[in-house]
Specification:
The chain has 226 residues and is α+β, with helices and mostly antiparallel strands. 41% of the residues lie in helices and 17% in strands. It has 2 domains: 148 residues, Orthogonal Bundle (Arc Repressor Mutant, subunit A); 74 residues, Ferrous iron transport protein A (FeoA) (SH3 type barrels), CATH 2.30.30.
Length: 226
């Protein structure tokens, strides 16, 4: 069996992916459960359990009964450095290589493991120190600090609310292509026109056109009121 590839943090690529995904789940959902981790990574729950045991032995995560898994300070530091590489890679792909906004996430997932600290800093300088990725998510700085802009899911807004779209938390290509087709990209000004009860759809007006959004879609679009 060939050895696992080592990523930019000295961890194996799967370990980096796990730590980054745990961070994202906790950031977006408040908790990282084993089932959600397995779904996000496309692996079996059994594989997740085995890998988490290894990461816990390395002092990178803590497993809590009925409360999912959380990063230790050491694990969080690694996750933020991987996340920094990922989001800078996305900006490199869109701004320099002119790839589509909706298609860079998967490629950046590969690049993030090949970038060391020196290359990451060089990319950041080339891009003139961007604060967010193309989807509006904040880029951690070299020390691991991350500045979150005040925003909330669109599903929390009410009719007549006006807002500016801040970020997209779900970066699947199909989701991003769909949102881009509606003009729902960071910086877009929108208005909530209707909100059906019982988790029904929302009617959102953007660039003069109105669209119905399911609550599952509205929940991954974050905005701030204006």
């Amino acid at each position: 069996m060939s050895p696992q590839k080592t990523g930019g943090e000295g961890q194996s690529e799967p370990a980096e992916m796990y730590l980054e995904t745990i961070y994202r789940l906790a950031e977006n959902e408040g908790i990282a459960r084993t089932t959600a981790l397995a779904k996000s990574l496309g692996v079996s729950p059994g594989a997740v359990t085995n890998t988490l045991a290894s990461l816990e032995a390395q002092g990178l995560v803590r497993r809590r009964a009925y409360k999912g898994v959380e990063l230790t300070p050491k694990g969080r530091a690694v996750a933020l450095r991987v996340l920094r590489r990922h989001r800078l890679a996305e900006q490199l792909l869109t701004k320099v290589l002119r790839m589509k906004w909706s298609d860079v996430h998967e490629t950046a997932c590969k690049l993030e493991h090949a970038m060391n600290g020196e290359l990451t800093n060089a990319v950041e300088r080339l891009l003139e120190h961007p604060k967010t990725c193309p989807h509006g998510n904040p880029i951690p700085d070299e020390t691991g600090r991350i500045r979150m802009e005040n925003s909330q899911p669109l599903s929390d807004f009410q009719p007549k609310d006006k807002a500016v779209l801040v970020r997209i938390t779900e970066e699947r290509s199909d989701m991003l292509r769909y949102l881009a087709s509606l003009g729902l990209m960071p910086g877009a000004v929108l208005e909530i026109q209707e909100k059906a009860p019982f988790d029904g759809p929302m009617i959102v007006k953007v660039m003069g056109a109105s669209y119905a959004l399911g609550r599952n879609v509205a929940s991954v679009v974050e905005a701030r009121r204006i």
